[in-house]
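During the practical work, I selected for study one protein's amino acid sequence and its backbone structure tokens, as given directly below:
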Amino acid sequence: MLKMFNLPCQVAGTDEAGRGCLAGPVTAAAVILPKKFKNKLLNDSKQIKEVDRNSLKEIIINEALSYGIAHVFMEEIDKINILNASILAMHRAIEQLHCEPEHIIVDGNKFKPFRNISHDCIIKGDGKFLSIAAASILAKTVRDEFMKKIHQEFPMYNWQKNKGYPTREHRQAIMEFGSTPYHRKSFKLLPEQLKLTL
């Protein structure tokens, strides 16, 4: 059972999506939910069907006290590395909140302080706290929408399905067609054994 964080009253949950992808941005969201917010479907975005994620996205946007969503794109990921890019995306999402939170709860175990606001890192927090789960839904759905959009430019990589993750199909397409401007150049796009066959 997911729970609300009781104190302090203005708690922002934050999470990112796309950290392990070979292509596309890393996307983060931050959400402050009303204290009495409840939804039986809300959970870690990875545990929910796409159709339910999309309906939850609309509920969260309509009912959250405040939310923010931010991308960090490939060039910046390559420049500062994916961990720093993930944290930067979360910071940018928090900056968009209409009211400054009193406390931040973060999915995972790495974060850099944001202004002078206290924070807690919570491993698998998207399955424990409603505001983190809500942030995971927004980050995942907005990033998926972006990947479906750029799929139209490069349909051979099938990003509408794999969303840029390193599936066999995605790597096969990289072998056949090479990389695109949407690929992260600092990532190992192909395993070493595949590189030898190029």
